[in-house]
Amino acid sequence: MASANRLPVTAEDILRSKRNGGGTAIHLKRSSVALIDTTNLPSKRQRLSRDNDNDDDDYAMTDMHHGRKTLKVAPDWGGGEVTSTPAPFSSTGQTQILLAPPASTPAAYRNTSNPLSLSHPKWGLKREVVLGFGACGITEMYPWQSECLSLPGLLSGEQNLVYTAPTSAGKSLVADVLAIRQVIAERKKAIIVVPYIAIVQEKTKFLKKVLEKVRVMADSKGHWDKQKRWRSVNIVGFHSGAKSRLGWKELDLAVCTIEKANALINAAIEDCSIDHLGVVVFDELHMLGDPHRGPILELLATKILCLSEEHIQIVGMSATLANVHVLAAWLHAQAYECTYRPIPLREHYVVDNAVYAYNDRLTARIPLSELKELKDPVTNAVITLAFACVKDGHGVLVFCESRRRCEDMSLLLIKFMPRCDDNTRERRMEVVRDLATTTTGLDFVLERTVPAGVAFHHAGLTTEEKDLIADAYDRGLVKIICCTATMAAGVNLPARRVIISPRMGRDFVSPAMLRQMKGRAGRKGKDTVGESFLVCRKSDIVAVKALMEAKMPSVESCLAGEEGGLKRALLEGIATKLATSADSLDDYIRATLLFHTTADPAVTLRPIIAAALEYLKVQNLITEDTHTGYFEATKIGNATVASGFGPDEGVFLHQELSRALRNFNLECDMHIVYQFTPIHSSSTQAVEIDWKVMRDEVEHLDEHALRAATFVGVNPGFVNRMAQGGALKEDTPANIEKARVYRRFYVSLMLRELINERPVHVVAANYDIARGFIQQLSSTCRGFATTSATFCKVMGWTGLAVLLEHYSWRLDLGVKDDLMELARIPFVKSYTARVFYENGLKTIEAVAAADVSVLRKALEMAQPKRLRLRQEEEVKMAARLQERAEIVLAAARRIYEQECVVELEE
Predict the structure, then answer these.
(1) CB neighbours of 782 closer than 8 A, spacing ≥ 6?
(2) 816: pLDDT confidence band, cut at 50, 70 and 90?
(3) Residues 289-312: pLDDT tens digits?
(4) CA–CA separation, 581 vs 776, rounded Å?
(5) Mean pLDDT computed over 822-833
(6) For the CA atoms of the chain, what is the radius of gyration?
(7) Long-range contacts: 724-732, Cβ < 8 Å, 24+?
(8) CA dist., res. 73 & res. 467, Å (int)
(9) Cα of 427 vs its chain's centroid, Å
(10) Where is the Helicase ATP-binding domain positioned along the sequence (predicted)?
(11) For 26-43, what is the mean pLDDT?
């Protein structure tokens, strides 16, 4: 046995011990931790079997069973608890290769008598795919789905499709079948484009479950390789901040946000591998009308249309399309409209405690209440309608106008919730304990509401908290969720009854958003009917009735809007060489929705296009050959496109980075953190500066950080004047630019705290900002740092690119340099990693060698002290931490064994 001061054993020691069939017991410095029995370390074969999943979230939603208890581990988030192995430390990430062929599909399996069955031969789905859909509860199609898929040329990939169907009608299945056929039968790649990160994660998880048993033929190693090998289908989710070991060449199916899909297509066009793409699915096609993201979506579709020789199938769908035939004409697609809803929806509106059907027929009256809390008729209606539904055993979604209203309504609802049995209450307390073991600790509102079966859900919560609440609602433990309108489009949580406020902030919701919220009513397989109640005040009744009767707005192009979409479209067309001459530019513009929806486009668009081209030339993003008339992207233009920025952002970033290269301050991390603070977070009104907070933070900066602040244009004296009541008017270009710099610096102060191991909830409290916003900001900055590094690489600024990538990893892990290796372990992030380090667990070897009781103690020490549970919960809380400690131990063993094998192979 080694002495107490001996360092942990090396990889060779453990491997030698394994070969000898024995173990080693060693004490680590600063702790009495006994090294694990090395005979229990996972073997290489075990490691490979666990590495079959190619997604980075290896531990996402992992279940660790201990008797009857299950600990749910939420998906990864920036600075949070679960994360993938960072690229600098990861293995090659190769897919599991099998020599045995995939399971056969016997003819007897085919259900030829039922054309709606997924196993019917006309759909061409392998048995494993059908079984995968069956595991997700899908065995048959609705008649409308069968009719839609039977349109000529769809299943063969020869025709495009644009279709619309109500929420919950199963519109995704049509696109899923077409995408899976391209991946499995045609051996082409598929891209599914969705608007929100939450949908990327949900869709990726669903497709992995459907295709988990499917095997496809692996690529040969060369012309001499005649052996057939089989591998699993590579499904990857791409969004800001996400990291994957698999790139375009290795993946089969990608689920992407709009921006990531555009970058993926650009890269494939650049390296001439776009011919491997078989289908692109646009979910929520109505996003074309969004002024911020619509131009990128239109640009993406336009580029695919210009690649007509590659025969890429386009599938577009939405629940809120009014001009489906116009969009179908633009995309050279067949149009299909469906009004079928599997669960009938009963729609009502409520005013002054009276319930009306949409035809103004009075259907019920809500009793008045003598309680002080229910004197307001709107509050009384919400409470009464929610209580009645829960009493019958159903779930309810209450859409509120603000985050504060969500929390206040949750606290009010618990006073009227029916009592539950002891078993249900204990299961709810399990959810509370899960929430308490997050790094942000237990929210005091959720601590009071979840035991009663009520929760809130809005952007102020962290991703982990949202996932735990959604899971509890899905299991029937939480019966009511009070949420903001954005959840209607981002999370799939249907309910028997939805209660809707017609306002979002001070403004009324849009007709499309109202339809999305109403569409959440009715759960297939659990409800026979859905109910929606639009609760409004008497003063709003005229506007509300107009909202109810409003038709869905037609989707129009935003490419020529103020966001500079046309400039970006032209720049990307030139940079990807899809449009480099006058004729090809003309064909390129004709492929846009803008051209199809503009009256007399040849006349109307000509001056706009000329002005956009002139702007690109003046900003040195493109050049024009005066002799041939050909356009070519400059180095700045190529860097802008490669990193996914728009022209204005690319020019601004080039100016900022060029100035930084001339006067870069590396005495501290202040300057580099400022550089990877997102541009768009500072050019919008999303961040309001609290000048008093900023003054306090600036006053505490050391000399080096103050020098960096001066370099980027921040004047401490100006900050002090603003804190004393000054006003920064954004009335001139100079003042707009000044405000942009100060907002960006204000955000960088928050980020600097995160990379220096300040927990998310502490930073949020310091700046009086919701912890969910801080977490989202962290994720956005990781993505921005990565894309900025790409910009630098194209510009040839390799040193700055390395710096940005390094700090991107630090922000991802939420630690300083000395903890980056340790923070690879799930649950060991930020402050928790520092606690481990200071208690002798300084390396992955040390954690892998530790006794689980020591790990549990370390996790307990890292719990936020201000958010402790009540005394009677401490024993159960300790058991929860014990389960989490076992996950940490298993993960550390896995990572350490990986390193041992890699080192041995080298």
Answers:
(1) 78, 240, 241, 808, 811, 812
(2) confident
(3) 988 889 999 999 999 999 988 889
(4) 41
(5) 80
(6) 29
(7) 726/691
(8) 9
(9) 28
(10) 152-339
(11) 34
38 or 594, greater pLDDT:
594
pLDDT at 397 over 90: yes
Q: What are phi and psi of 314, to 5 degrees?
A: -115, 130
- Pairing of β 362-365 and β 396-399: unpaired
Q: Which residue has the higher pLDDT, 768 or 44?
A: 768
* Dihedral of the alpha carbons of 326, 330, 331, 333, in degrees to the nearest 10: 50
CA-based nearest residue to 475, from 63, 755, 49: 63
Residue 347: predicted pLDDT: 94
Alpha-carbon span 197 to 84, nearest angstrom = 17
CA 514 from chain centre, in angstroms, equals 23
Q: Compute the 3-state secondary structure of the chain and give helix, strand, coil in percent, each to the nearest 5.
A: 50, 10, 40
Which ranges of 271-376 would DSSP assign to H, the alpha helix? Answer: 294-306, 324-330
Give, in order, the Cα–Cα distances in Å from 526 to each of 118, 183, 538, 846: 22, 33, 35, 49
Query: Which pair of structure tokens corresponds to residue 382?
Result: 């919400």
| CA–CA distance, 863 with 896 (Å, rounded to integer) | 26
Can you give the pLDDT at residue 103? 57
Tell me how far CA of residue 859 lies from CA of 37, 764, 815, 839, 852, in angstroms: 22, 22, 16, 11, 11
- CB-neighbour burial class of residue 528 (10 A; exposed 0-12, middle 13-18, buried 19+): exposed
- The residue written with tokens 């600036």 in the block is 698
In this model, does residue 156 exceed pLDDT 80?
yes
User: Does the reported pTM lie above 0.90?
Assistant: no
Q: Using an 8 Å Cβ cutoff, are 836 and 843 in contact?
A: no
Q: What are phi and psi of 281, to 5 degrees?
A: -105, 125
Both tokens of residue 138? 């899908």
* Secondary structure (DSSP) of 40-88: GSPPHHHHHHHTT--SS-TTTT-EEEETTEEEE-PPP-TTSS--PPPGG
> pLDDT (tens digit, 9 = 90+) per residue, 274-292?
999 999 999 999 999 988 8
Q: What single string gives the DSSP state of each residue in 386-442?
A: HHHHHHTT--EEEE-SSHHHHHHHHHHHTTTPPP--HHHHHHHHHHHHHHHTSTT--
Q: Which of 463, 128, 96 is nearest to 246 (CA)?
A: 96
98: phi then psi, degrees, rounded to nearest 5: -115, 140
- Pairing assessment for the beta strands 97-98 and 230-232 based on DSSP bridges: antiparallel
Max avg pLDDT among 51-55, 66-70, 374-378, 456-460: 374-378
- b/e code 566-596 from CB counts within 10 Å (16+ = b): bbbbbbbbbbbebbbeeebbeebbbbbbbbe
Q: How confident is the model at residue 561 (pLDDT cuts 50, 70, 90)?
A: confident
Distances (CA, A) of 500 to 341, 378, 480, 655: 20, 11, 13, 47
The CA distance from 565 to 264, in Å, is 19
The type of residue at 902 is V
Question: Could you give the CA distance from residue 520 to residue 211 in angstroms, rounded to a whole number?
Answer: 27
Which of 36-40's residues contact partners 24+ apart within 8 Å by CB, and which partners? 36/848, 36/849, 36/850, 36/851, 36/889, 36/893, 38/14, 40/893
Both tokens of 323, joined, read 């001009």
DSSP at 495:
B
Cβ contacts of 501 within 8 Å, gap of 6 or more: 378, 399, 400, 401, 405, 535, 536
For residue 631, the 8-state DSSP code is E
User: Is 784 or 174 the better-scoring residue by pLDDT?
Assistant: 174
pLDDT at 193 over 90: yes
Task: Answer whether residue 84 shows pLDDT above 50.
Answer: no
Tens digit of pLDDT for each residue in 503-556? Answer: 888 889 988 889 889 988 987 777 789 999 999 999 999 999 999 988 888 899
* DSSP-assigned states of every residue in 681-739: HHHSTT----HHHHHHHHHT--HHHHHHHHHHT--HHHHHHHHTT------SHHHHHHH
Q: Phi/psi zone of residue 220: left (φ > 0), alpha (ψ -120 to 50 degrees), beta?
A: beta
